């Protein structure tokens, strides 16, 4: 990466603020954030959202190949993030118990829950064909972007 991760995420956050500043529509904002991440993050093959509907995560706006449509809360990396409320950084998805393989080319993943008015609304999911693609800097940078998103949806 030519730019330090912190600088990259700072730039993405500024772009997200601009895109989301005057818009509160959930689908529009999720679509723009997924596109923004897709365009700016290297070595990823999927970036998007799953929305919580009852006890199931349902596919929302994304960039990448077609994906699994429904994921039960508590299942796979996305469902685990939704069930625990914790960011999931998985260096090798093939070693994650219960991993749901939507794209066989994915080898690592980061998933972050997001909230609307304090209630779990869904998860941000980003996959990579590289092993160990995501780290704590990614988690911190994405948390900043998710916070901007959450603020736009109040």
UniProtKB/TrEMBL annotation:
GO terms for cellular component: cytosol. Pfam families: GAF_2 (PF13185). Belongs to the free Met sulfoxide reductase family. It comes from Neptunicella marina. Residues 47-147 form the GAF domain. PANTHER family: FREE METHIONINE-R-SULFOXIDE REDUCTASE (PTHR21021:SF15), GAF/PUTATIVE CYTOSKELETAL PROTEIN (PTHR21021). GO terms for molecular function: L-methionine-(R)-S-oxide reductase activity. This is GAF domain-containing protein.
């Amino acid at each position: 990466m030519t730019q330090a991760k912190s600088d990259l995420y700072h730039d993405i956050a500024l772009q997200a603020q601009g895109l989301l500043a005057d818009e509160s529509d959930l689908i529009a904002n999720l679509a723009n954030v997924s596109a923004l991440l897709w365009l700016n993050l290297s070595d990823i093959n999927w970036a998007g959202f799953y929305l919580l509907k009852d006890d199931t995560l349902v596919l929302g706006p994304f960039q990448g190949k077609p994906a699994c449509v429904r994921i039960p809360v508590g299942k796979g990396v996305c469902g685990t993030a939704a069930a625990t409320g914790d960011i999931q950084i998985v260096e090798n998805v093939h070693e994650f118990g219960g991993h749901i393989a939507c794209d066989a080319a994915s080898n690592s993943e980061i998933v972050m829950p997001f909230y609307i008015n304090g209630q779990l609304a869904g998860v941000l999911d980003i996959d990579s064909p590289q092993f160990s693609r995501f780290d704590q800097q990614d988690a911190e940078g994405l948390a900043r972007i998710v916070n901007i998103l959450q603020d736009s949806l109040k």
